[in-house]
Amino acid sequence: MDEKSRDGKIKQITESILTRLLYYKMSFDVAIYIKELRNWRELEETIDAENSPFIGLGIIASKKNVEEWSKSNETILNEEYVASFEVSDELDSFPLEETAMVYLFTIVEDYGNQILKLVDPNYGLNRKAWHHRVRDEEEDINKTIEGFISPFKVIKKRYISKKIISSFLKLKTERNKIVHGEQCSIKFNEAFSISIATICHLYYLITNSKDNLRVFPWQDFDGKYQQSVPLSFHEEENGMTNSSF
Questions:
Q1: Burial class (CB in 10 A: 0-12, 13-18, 19+), 210
Q2: Considering only CA atoms, which of 192, 182, 214, 171 is closest in space to residue 27?
């Protein structure tokens, strides 16, 4: 694949991932809004109804029923009735923000994986994450930068943002804290901003593009984002194109 074709493919992947992130941010905001609009009385009435959508699960495991388990034969979990007040107690306990941030990091990680298949198809053979050397090297930011750019064969004379790479390190560190049950020190919006900046920075580090990235997966009333943007998965399902608006 020649450089122009490669850069075109990288741009397509970049726009697709950015579109995915923008939809994800909107769905997160809607979920938080709905959660804060909760009506306790209406919720408990729904739970107490005959066809309640909320079912408690119990676990009874034995050597025998574990061995008999399959996707089509659930032998361990049991559905049970749960009182309404016990269900509503759990409304605030789900770690929505923390879970969302872990997924954000996964999307950035996936972007790097897709790009590496074009930049260095053999990199994945060592079975290490592309960011495995992005770590706090006793406050030596140069080693952190080297760990960030080396898998992608970035030309070092290009502008490299210490702020973005150190922010990505922070996002990775906070992701690891969440996974290990530790207290996270950043919020979703900050993690989202870091994710977008990291992807865009990688795009300009790897390609020779000087064009703007313009991504807005909803109706563009002012034409501010007009360009060739990949169809979102919503548009693909509905058979829509950019000219459908």
A1: exposed
A2: 192
